[in-house]
Design a protein that fits this description.
266 residues; mainly alpha; two-stranded antiparallel sheet; 2 strands; 3% strand
Amino acid sequence: MNTLRKDWQDTRLLFRSIPSVVVALFTISVVTMNILANKTIFQSEYLAIDGGILVSWLSFMCMDIITKHFGPRASTKCSIFAMFVNLLVCALFAIVAAIPTADDFSAFNGVIGGTWFILLSSTVAFLSSALINNFLNYAIGRLFRRNPDGKAAFVCRSYISTFIGQWADNLIFAVLTFMVFAPIFWDGFHWTFIQCLTCAILGACLELLMEVIFSPFGYMVTKRWREERVGAEYFAARGFSAADAAEGSGRACAAAEHDRITEDRA
């Protein structure tokens, strides 16, 4: 019970420490991504792409920024929060779609009502890829001991974790939605495994390209957070010295996660 209370207090302080704009953009991108994923925007014999690919890169960039400054556990907590917001939005959409009206809103209801298996697939895929991205990003960052806050460290940890995380997200979602559930509930419509695989690879490449384009902005955000001592109260509450807590540095963040993981294993 004490552990749960401590973790809850830690989570409350975390969400007060992370700038609201990043949390808002992250949450909106997750909700929008799952709505757009309902539409297949391209399909051929060997390739298929859904609309979620247009915004999914933003979700991963936000996770990379949060992981860089606050650590993978903090980013995972934000991912869980975004998932619950997405579930709430989907529930509201389903309620609105189910309300009977005199006029025909079947097309509108079909768009916002969604289907339970798309929600299930997107939730499983998103949480799995978030865990992969966050902890892989953190692990790669620990390799840069001399300059963990440098541009090279940020680029390497962001590019590699984003590509692998996006690939996992795309593949899990595509397989569950278009190979497992769609043939049953969408009158036989389906993707082949080759289409799912190529979608996952191409999607990861396109999303990596977007990460490359916008990574200078992400690096600028993390640099400014360090300069403005964002999260100093959070780091201080985790038991760091005044200097480390004030800096909000990547070293402090890495030390926090190392200590936390050690405690959990013990």
